[in-house]
Write a structure and sequence with these properties.
The complex is a heterodimer of chains A (about 110) and B (about 170). Chain A has about 110 residues and is an all-alpha fold. Chain A has a single domain (about 10-100), classed as Helix Hairpins (Orthogonal Bundle). Chain A is built from three helices and no strands. The relative contact order of chain A is 0.12. Chain B has helices at about 1-25, 25-45, 50-75, 90-115, 130-140, 145-165. In chain B, α2 (about 25-45) packs antiparallel against α3 (about 50-75). The longest helix of chain B is centred in the middle third of the chain and has 29 residues, at about 90-115. Chain B folds into three domains: about 1-85, NADH-ubiquinone/plastoquinone oxidoreductase chain 6, subunit NuoJ (Four Helix Bundle (Hemerythrin (Met), subunit A)); about 95-125; about 130-174. Helices cover about 75% and strands about 0% of the residues of chain B. The chains are: A mainly alpha (about 110), B mainly alpha (about 170). At the A-B interface, α1, α2 and α3 of A face α1, α2, α3, α4 and α5 of B.
């Protein structure tokens, strides 16, 4: 698969995308800080963007680029709402570790 | 050959800074590593000749979203958050194994499908002009309904974020 080191093909981009996605998933599972969990979700969304752009480039098709725009807009919206929620939770509990509000009881 | 060297360099930067986001205890360093990672991904888009998307990535992610994150990190008092990792050896081992396993599954599936179809290099990278004109024409014709839905979503997010920021505990207000 990676035999041709000198040539960069679609598979290199897809492997990079998979690795980045799994690092983000590892962060979501492993960290207990709500902010770092949001950052890891951004990493996962960017991994998906990489594979969209790579497929779009190698298949000569512009639809993937448009999809990347939508993913970016939704990711920005998600970050805004997630951070607003984090601020609200911090005002209520004085704590950002998800261990302390896992029951979501008001 | 220069393409390969630049690809591996960008790949190293992206993966190292992504690992730093996950592994560094202090959230402000995580945010800075995330900015480096976003910039690396923009460079990757640039090398894929997706120039406009690279610019949008820089402006939206490395600019706007990261400023939002850093602002929120500065709002919080995070002195006692140094050990905000998952606790318990069993849970840690399980989560690490799960992540590595999913990566191996995806990589294995990719390598099998590429060995079936031949290498990825055989898929020709064709030269069409990837102008912004074509992209915007596609955005405003084929995807115009998704675009309108996105506008509605953004309005909802603005209203929701303001309502959340102003809320004083909602139904459980004291």
């Amino acid at each position: 698969m990676l035999s041709s080191i000198g040539e960069i093909g679609l598979n290199h981009y897809l492997i990079l995308s998979a690795a980045l996605f799994c690092i983000g998933m590892f962060g979501v599972l492993m960290r207990k800080n709500a902010l770092v969990i949001l950052m890891s979700i951004e990493l996962m969304l960017n991994a998906v963007n990489i594979s969209f752009v790579a497929f779009s480039r190698y298949q000569n098709n512009l639809d993937g680029f448009v999809m990347v725009f939508f993913v970016m807009a939704v990711a920005a919206a998600e970050a805004a709402v997630g951070l607003a929620l984090a601020v609200a939770i911090f005002k209520r509990f004085r704590e950002i570790n998800i261990r302390f509000f896992e029951h979501l009881k008001g | 050959m220069t393409e390969a060297i630049s690809f591996y360099l960008i790949q190293f930067i992206i993966l190292a800074s992504a690992l730093a986001v996950v592994l560094v205890p202090n959230p402000i360093y995580s945010a800075i590593s995330l900015a480096v990672s976003m910039t690396g991904i923009a460079a990757l888009f640039f090398s894929l000749e997706a120039y406009f998307i690279a610019g949008v990535q820089l402006v939206v992610y490395a600019g706007a979203v990261m400023v939002l994150f850093v602002m929120v990190v500065m709002l919080f008092d995070l002195k006692k958050e140094k050990r905000a990792f998952s606790r318990g050896t069993l849970s840690r081992v399980l989560k690490t194994t799960l992540s590595v396993l999913i990566f191996s599954m995806i990589a294995g599936a990719l390598s099998m499908s590429f060995s079936e179809l031949g290498s990825g290099d055989s898929i020709a990278k064709e030269d069409i002009t990837r102008s912004i004109k074509e992209l915007s024409a596609l955005l405003y014709t084929k995807y115009v309904f998704a675009f309108e839905a996105l506008a509605i979503l953004l309005v909802m997010v603005i209203v929701g974020a303001i309502a959340l920021a102003k809320a004083k505990g909602g139904t459980h207000a004291k």
